[in-house]
Amino acid sequence: MLPTDLPALSAHEPVNLQIYRALRQCIVNCTLLPGEAISDKEISEQFGVSRQPVRDAFIKLVGAGLIQVLPQRGTFVMKISPKRVLNGRFIREAVEVAVARNAADKISDEQLLALAANIEQQKLAAARNDTARFLALDEEFHTTLSRSIDCIEAWELIEDIKAHMDRVRYLSLGEITSLQMLIAQHAAIVHALRSRDPAMAEEAMRSHLREINLSFGPIRERNPDWFEAE
Amino acid sequence: MLPTDLPALSAHEPVNLQIYRALRQCIVNCTLLPGEAISDKEISEQFGVSRQPVRDAFIKLVGAGLIQVLPQRGTFVMKISPKRVLNGRFIREAVEVAVARNAADKISDEQLLALAANIEQQKLAAARNDTARFLALDEEFHTTLSRSIDCIEAWELIEDIKAHMDRVRYLSLGEITSLQMLIAQHAAIVHALRSRDPAMAEEAMRSHLREINLSFGPIRERNPDWFEAE
Amino acid sequence: MLPTDLPALSAHEPVNLQIYRALRQCIVNCTLLPGEAISDKEISEQFGVSRQPVRDAFIKLVGAGLIQVLPQRGTFVMKISPKRVLNGRFIREAVEVAVARNAADKISDEQLLALAANIEQQKLAAARNDTARFLALDEEFHTTLSRSIDCIEAWELIEDIKAHMDRVRYLSLGEITSLQMLIAQHAAIVHALRSRDPAMAEEAMRSHLREINLSFGPIRERNPDWFEAE
Amino acid sequence: MLPTDLPALSAHEPVNLQIYRALRQCIVNCTLLPGEAISDKEISEQFGVSRQPVRDAFIKLVGAGLIQVLPQRGTFVMKISPKRVLNGRFIREAVEVAVARNAADKISDEQLLALAANIEQQKLAAARNDTARFLALDEEFHTTLSRSIDCIEAWELIEDIKAHMDRVRYLSLGEITSLQMLIAQHAAIVHALRSRDPAMAEEAMRSHLREINLSFGPIRERNPDWFEAE
DNA sequence: GTGGTCTAGACCACC
DNA sequence: GTGGTCTAGACCACA
């Protein structure tokens, strides 16, 4: 079920894009649960638009692997596929490790400062237990790395992978790996970059991405129907 | 301009998907040239369908970065962005090197045989100078590697990156790195996998992907309007 | 367009079967023209039933190759495919020649008498120029042959083939090969059977089936859109 | 009883068609035994769909003579009718002999090569005792012949006939005419075609089809309830 | 109750 | 808004 307090549609941005982002947001933070049925007609009425922009948004969501359209059956939020998440993590590690290695050479001093500032804010968010804010900062942290080697494409790619990983995170809020540990890992990465040491940067990034909480176990046992059959 | 001998639309598959594949094919092999204008209306008439499925296909092509929709201006085949291609190659290397490393442990004997058979066919294609066939075999070769570590997600990702790299390849047909060399590199990868040596597999894959001909130089000078301004 | 004077639906026979026969009849005698669009909804309203039994009838008509269902496009009366008709004639010749050959041995005297009587009635129908009646008798003639060798399956097979041949016949009513000639050929077949001469029976049947008017020429020129593109 | 490991339903193909094929397969290879009762409700539950697409599949199966619907009694897998199988063989002989005769003139050199390659694979399958693979190759062999005279209609017809013959074959696996002999007969057909000798091709095909093992004897004695009462 | 048949309504994709 | 497909539910006949 969609939240009743939908974001108002802004004027001069394509409607389909706004709907895409809204739906994506709802799916990633599990406001729309895995396996739940959604209907273009219903959504179009809730937003007060025609079905067309909703259809367009659906196509993009299919492209991101977040929904599944079964012709003549219905449209459903993709269930969480453990294999897909694990494979996603594998790919993400491959890419971000290479990014970190390169960044050790190329990152500018300004960007290093920005990363340090970001970490300070992470600490604040952690202190207030503001997980949403923390995740946003985390995202910005990694984006900055990709930007530092002038390879924004890397982040675009990872964004789709991350969406699937984040669904698990949101479901396991509270059981999540301690924010303190994540912050320490981020700091280690920045330290390696500041030392201009590619090998250390690679290693820091690798252990960071390996640490990410992927213990589906407890969540899956409580809600097996949110996960895809093997 | 679309080829006049369009593939007939099959009955039991969504029309939008069929059109997506047809257009993608035309863009990748440069039947539709970079920067060329395309129109949903015109295409819908050529296929004998309504504009809707063509619009759907356009959305997916935008997602793959192959076309660009300028509101109130028109729709255009993306010009080749050297930076995008180079960054794509960087990402691809990161992922496929990790794939190769893992495959050294996990690949089955059957799959090793399939790779060997594939290389034999590559030699045949090279002997007949059948470049299209060679590229298809190359694609199958790399797909098999991803499948061998049970991570088709890796290949799905690379497919979109590869589309941009392949446009350059098609334009530089003839100037392409000698097929013999590519075949030798493929053989080296298989050799490393058969030896179950991750480091060797990584190195073989890395040098293979670095070797790939991406010298825009001559093509770009002859046809500067196929490339994006920096 | 369906005829307005639809046959009333009888009480205790499945509705879908009655509709199947009605539609088949309309298609074979070209009341429903080749290529014409038909809709389950419209037909269901004309018969005063729901869409379901019409759908059931459609499935059977697809099985007989008389209509074509294009998902998400519509349902259409199959255009006449010259190749299909010709190939059908080829198959029919193969089967019925074998039937005739066998019948020379196995046919009973009673059945021979029935055939002779049938031919007499054909003469009457021809004299009154009652083509519909003639075609019904022709059908009975051939059915009797299949029954004579206890192989009703042969006729069931030919029935579907014949439906396509008959569409051409109905369109070329008047230009049809003279009924007299057909009657003479039937008589020749009976003569051969009565003589218990397999070779003669085979030859009589073969020349009969070769004689069948299949000159699409004039009809096709007048109505090219009733015929499938090659 | 249906196998428990049903094929997953694919997204972009009508459900009824997928179910039709699955059931047909089960009937032909006698996973569903002759005379066994099947129920649309039960099947719909096993596939996780409603009864409607199963009903659609049933209609097609009735058209192919593979199941029997007794109103108010139930739906049953057709028992094997010896007469039907024998008459089917008779019709198949008539058609395929004519096909072979024509193919001697019309078959292309490529198709002759394909047939030769097919026979080689038959030998491999026979060596591994892989009967299922052999039957698939056999099917492809005969299909190629029909295609060679541009008459796939012939094969479509035979396919339904063959389904009934194959049920007997599957039941008599092991007692089947030696694969070696069948391969030799296939080779003889190819030889005749390569010699462009219609009479020889006809004779080779005729003796091939006469040789096919259709001895109900032992099977019928052991399982009389799989066969129709005369 | 079971099984065959029919009705009404919903949804996706295309016009 | 339409057409093709699927779902859910009702009815009737037979056991």
Automatic annotation (TrEMBL), chains A, B, C, D:
Keyword DNA-binding annotated: yes
Domain HTH gntR-type, residue spans: 13-80
Keywords of the record: DNA-binding, Transcription, Transcription regulation
Keyword Hydrolase: no
Pfam family, one: GntR
Taxonomy, superkingdom: Bacteria
InterPro entries given in the database record: GntR_C, TF_FadR/GntR_C, Tscrpt_reg_HTH_GntR, WH-like_DNA-bd_sf, WH_DNA-bd_sf
CDD domains: WHTH_GntR
Record-given protein name: GntR family transcriptional regulator
Organism: Uliginosibacterium sediminicola
